[in-house]
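Methods, example record. To illustrate the input and output format used throughout this study, we show the complete record for Amidohydrolase family protein. The sequence lines were provided to the predictor; the line carrying structure tokens was produced by it.
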Amino acid sequence: MTVDPQTWHPDPSKPAFKAPAGSVDAHCHVFGPGSSFPYASQRKYTPTDAPKEMLFALRDHLGLSRNVIVQASCHGTDNAALIDALRAAPDLTRGIAVVDPAISDAELQDMDEAGVRGIRFNFVRRLVDPGPKDVYMRLAERVKELGWHVVVYFEAPDLDELAPFLKSLPVTVVIDHMGRPDTASGVEGEGFQNFIALMENEKFWVKVGCPERLTIDGPPYDDVAPFARTLVKRFSDRVLWGTDWPHPNMKSHLPDDGLLVDRIPIIAPTEILQKKLLVENPMRLYWDR
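The corresponding predicted structure is encoded as:
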């Protein structure tokens, strides 16, 4: 399988926005290096290596303090690269794993000690072949005992079909990338209004970053801002933000992570909202236990 082109900006700008002390990038990844942490044989893409050292350097460059590292589909259920990154900075990192249904309780406990705080279910068919819902339910019941949550990634057209299952999960559910709304339909469109209705259930949290994936107009992503701003305003205690570095599968452009940080005061326009989004909420979900 050929290696995809590099998907991260080689020289991201220094943000003008100064993030609050203790700010968390609550959605980012590490890839490889493949020589040490091979990519999964069943992967649907092969990224350019983006190891932990690059992620931590970017964190410092952006003026952030902590990372929540999410296992990406290219590594499958082998979480070795993720665990390696967590152990390299145990006070400053937490993780979201993707696990095999046959994983042992001892392995889950080892992950917990390394800093894993949840598992991810990916329903985006162009990236993975989603598993049976009953298998996901059993995994959710097991990780509930550890105090973990579930992160879900899906696309807006699949919300109606998935909603009953997501509501039935026995744990907190964090939704990636605002449920990937159709930005052309606007915040008043039926799809996004259905998503807001789901969010009225207090078991759901949502990540409001990733405008580069949702935009039609391109940088600076003004067409996406109303969606994130609406969620931050209405659900201020259950929103998270992240860079999504190193932006896997981006084909339209190389996102400038400095620009992504500078979008924060546009979607969270007050210091109170910024502190909730970047510090209080991720600390409560990932560190305070």
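Annotations derived from this record:
The mean pLDDT is 95.
The chain is about 35% helix and 10% strand.
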